[in-house]
């Protein structure tokens, strides 16, 4: 499963060369229904080709732009390993696609930049988080959102403590402490801290095991800022935190042996832990909006917010997911043109404001329409 970091999201927000195709669609995870996934994408690509031609490309140019998508349309294994939503971004220089635990509505957008607003819940209260389920017999990493959870394939991570004991790195560490051969009959006794020579405490073995896990997770999590929830027997928590190098691990975890828990059960318990974490920042931003109302430091006017976002004045932005407001912004005249229907060259102005806010260091909260202050498509707290 592809994961999407904030740095990758920032890259997608940058201005691209030529027309940009953004596709979002729901996907089926398992069963015979997975056969519908490539069919749905194929239908969207046909619409995209028509729209590209309507936008001024020749048929051959449109076909050439969409040609990279053929590599995944026929990949049956890829389509059988989906999450809840699929996102694709395609331009003359970029071809990116992601299988994500986000419940997308089917959407095709073709403008001069990528459309990223459906991805913004990753940055806000319905964002992504991870669960690391630990025991001496099993290691699992889950990726979740409010709605769903997926198990992440782990590479470079020991499957369990016994697997770690067999690794060369771990073996060298143990031999330097015990003078015993990891591959010999002393392996079990060393696991219990009773090996020949100097005694190795069980905690030390577990700590080294956890350091190998942390090292393996580094490649998966190094560019991420999502909260990480630990699940395991409570005495393991302080040992793992001693080994941990990921800065976004939460203090609170899921206590108890996770081996008998399904991914869905872990997700339910983890959401109870991370939801307050997500909500705190959003509630503080809403509170600031309410306190600042009438001071000139807040607005729910679309045109005013777009102008302020472009110039870096927006500190916090609330934007409605699932809504589009088509139009264009002219940076030379600082004018915003809003339209009922998209015209050639138009883009989703709400998406534009979100991108500009994010790129200028502001906080973006992608929320359901009824959660936007003042019942507007978007609302903002200005820095000045």
Question: What's a concise summary of this model?
Answer:
Helix content is 37%, strand content 20%.
Q: What is the string of SSEs from the N terminus onward?
A: HEHHHHEEEEEEHHHHEHEHEHEEEEHEE
Strand arrangement, major sheet? 7-6-5-8-9
Mean of the pLDDT scores? 85
Q: Find the structural class using helix and strand composition.
A: alpha+beta
- How would a textbook summarize the main sheet? 5 strands, mixed
The CATH topology of the largest domain comes to: Nucleotidyltransferase, domain 5
Question: What is Rg?
Answer: 25 Å
Helix content: 25-40%
Number of strands: 16
Overall morphology: globular
CATH top level assignment of the largest domain: Alpha Beta
Q: From the coordinates shown, what is the CATH architecture of the largest domain?
A: 2-Layer Sandwich
Number of domains: 3
């Amino acid at each position: 499963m592809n994961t999407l970091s904030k740095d990758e999201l920032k890259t997608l927000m940058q201005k691209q060369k030529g027309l940009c195709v953004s596709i979002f669609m729901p996907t089926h995870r398992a069963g015979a229904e997975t056969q519908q996934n490539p069919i749905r994408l194929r239908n969207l690509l046909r619409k995209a080709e028509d729209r590209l031609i309507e936008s001024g490309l020749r048929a051959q140019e449109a076909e050439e732009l969409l040609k990279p998508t053929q590599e995944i349309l026929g990949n049956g294994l890829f389509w059988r390993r989906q999450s809840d939503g699929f996102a694709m971004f395609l331009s003359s220089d970029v071809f990116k696609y992601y299988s994500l635990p986000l419940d997308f509505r089917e959407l095709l957008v073709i403008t001069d930049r990528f459309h990223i607003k459906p991805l913004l819940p990753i940055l806000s209260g319905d964002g992504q988080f991870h669960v690391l389920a630990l025991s001496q017999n099993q290691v699992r990493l889950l990726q979740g959102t409010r709605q769903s959870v997926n198990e992440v394939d782990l590479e470079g991570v020991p499957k369990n403590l016994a697997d770690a004991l067999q690794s060369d790195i771990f073996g060298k560490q143990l031999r330097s402490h015990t003078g015993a051969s990891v591959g010999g009959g002393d392996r079990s006794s060393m696991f219990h801290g009773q090996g020949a020579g100097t005694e190795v405490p069980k905690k030390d073995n577990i700590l080294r095991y956890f350091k190998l896990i942390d090292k393996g997770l580094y490649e998966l999590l190094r560019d991420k800022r999502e909260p990480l929830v630990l699940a395991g027997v409570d005495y393991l928590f302080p040992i793992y935190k001693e080994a941990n190098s990921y800065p976004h691990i939460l203090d609170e975890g899921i206590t108890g042996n996770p081996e008998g828990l399904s991914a869905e059960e872990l997700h339910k318990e983890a959401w109870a832990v991370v939801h307050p974490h997500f909500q705190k920042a959003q509630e503080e931003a809403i509170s600031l909006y309410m306190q600042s109302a009438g001071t000139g430091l807040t607005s729910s006017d679309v045109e005013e917010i777009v102008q302020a976002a472009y110039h870096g004045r927006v500190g916090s932005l609330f934007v409605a997911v699932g809504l589009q407001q088509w139009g264009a912004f002219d940076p030379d005249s600082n004018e915003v043109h809003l339209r009922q229907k998209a015209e050639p060259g138009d883009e989703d102005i709400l998406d534009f404001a979100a991108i500009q806010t994010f790129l200028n260091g502001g906080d973006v909260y992608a929320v359901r329409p009824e959660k936007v202050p003042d019942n507007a498509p978007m609302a903002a707290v200005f820095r000045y």
